[in-house]
Amino acid sequence: MKKLLDLRFVIGLFFFIVGALLVIYYFMNPNGIATPTVNITCGSLFILFGAGMIFLSYFSKISEE
Amino acid sequence: MKLELIDYLVIAVYFLFVVTIGYVLKKKIKTGNDFLMSNRNIPLWITSLAFISANLGAQEVLGMAANGVKYGLYTVHFYWLGASLAMIFLGVYMMPFYYGSKARSVPEYLALRYDEKTRGFNAVTFAVMTVFSSGISLYALAMLLKIILGWDFNMSVFLAAGIVLVYTFLGGLTSAVYNEVLQFFLIVLGIAPLVIIGMEKAGGWQGILQHVEASKMHVWKGMASASTNPMGVDAFSLVFGLGFVLAFGYWCTDFLVVQRAMISRNLNEAQRTPIIATVPKILMPAVVIMPGIILLALQSQFKGFELPVNAAGQTDYNMALPVLLSHLYPNGILGVGVTALIASFMSGMAGNVTAFNTVFTFDIYQSYIKKHASEKHYLYVGKATTIAGILISIATAYIARSFNSIMDLLQLVFSFVNAPLFATFFLGMFWKRTTANGAFYGLLSGTAAAALTHGLTTAEGKGGWITNLHTFYSGTGQAFTIAWIAFVVCFVITVIISLFTEPKEEKSLIGLVYSLTPKQKDAAKVWYKNPLILGLIILAVTITLNIIFF
Fold this sequence. Notes:
Chain A is an all-alpha fold. Helix content of chain A is about 80%, strand content about 0%. In chain B, strands 2-1-3 form a 3-stranded mixed sheet.
């Protein structure tokens, strides 16, 4: 719960989850979408961004300690 | 536009996160100061992003895309001429007075510098403006969701208002600020792919240059006369009306944005907040204006990108972004785009509500109703005001639905009040001779001059309710002219009355007026901590951008 007070962690977690949803949706429904690569591309980038923010929140915590 | 389960899941995750942020922060809120001022303990990167995010409401996200269609690249003046200069000025010159005076709000600064009647006038008009603006945001959100998604108006109003109420009531200003930062990333990352996809479809930058009329692809060309540019504005009105009066009036005196800098941990961070915020601000046109320009390019190449007409039978430019979303985003990322739109409305609403509860509690309740109560008491008042603010917003949304013209009227009245305010602050901070009576009557005269100018001129069928002495090429040109006339009248009247009335003692103005305040010694600081050096670097970048897109 304390981790949720760190905004970097919250933003990272949000984009990680949304990115994962987009990637899962792409693999569950690869056909029939107008621009097939958009969801997988954006989803992957969101996951990377989210992971980066989570890493940043842990990294700064360690350096502070 | 038809949403699927995946899109609703994205929206649900967003709602879950904003409410959780409020719930988690609830434990940190113990006093009125925590609730209304975040105990002045928010890190620099958060205050900087919240500073521009508080302004990144629906008017910005939908309105600037709409302006992109109407005015093309000229729309960037709102960023590269207006916002950037004003934000740097706020950080370098004005923030030391706001933060250094220990005022908790902009109206409180007016009380310290002038007197209670000037504070009262500003506090009441600001409180009314913010709570009605919040209601207009709510109305616009519900209408948008009804038009593009077919959602029920009542459900949209109560769902959005309920979520904003939960997180602002639980976590106060800190929760609003944290959510604004989340919303900032969501809006940028949710709309940026649309720009990339749109540009690719339009044939890249070269394709846009080929298919959008050349007159819309400049920033300064044709500004010598209002008749030779799509904005319908001449260079004087643009530079003085928008670049100076309106931009400085909004960014330097509107408590909604200034509050985000005032909750910084120290003066240096409070100064750097608006300056650092200028970096994403000058890049923001790529996300909020480019969609409008891309739409122009797509309209000339493909069918189906036409804008719908509104109830009055006019082209509805505000639908530019939704039209692009529905045509270019598949389900999945469409949910992210729609969530970004919802976030922009909620961000605007929460920003207004938190500014409203601070001003009401400190500048109206504590000043005029109950002066010496406990911190706990003001915490309860702040929370009750939050509920009241949301309820008034809901009522305003329904009034706006029944009487659509009330939105135009409210926004007009707001502009009359805002336009002359910067003269009052500017003189107060930089001329020690300015008196309380000069400021108060100058402010009233400036407001009256704004109303009079609107009553004597017309543009796009609006104004001229007294008689029509002049017709402007565009409503934008009329707004800029009203602003600079109101500023000049307020300035002149304030100076004249001040010269004939007794000023405050100089010792009571230390920390409030530039010439009487000890200067900070920034020389020893590293360059990235020096507000002036940072400001000059960003100014150079802004000038370069203006030259590149001349």
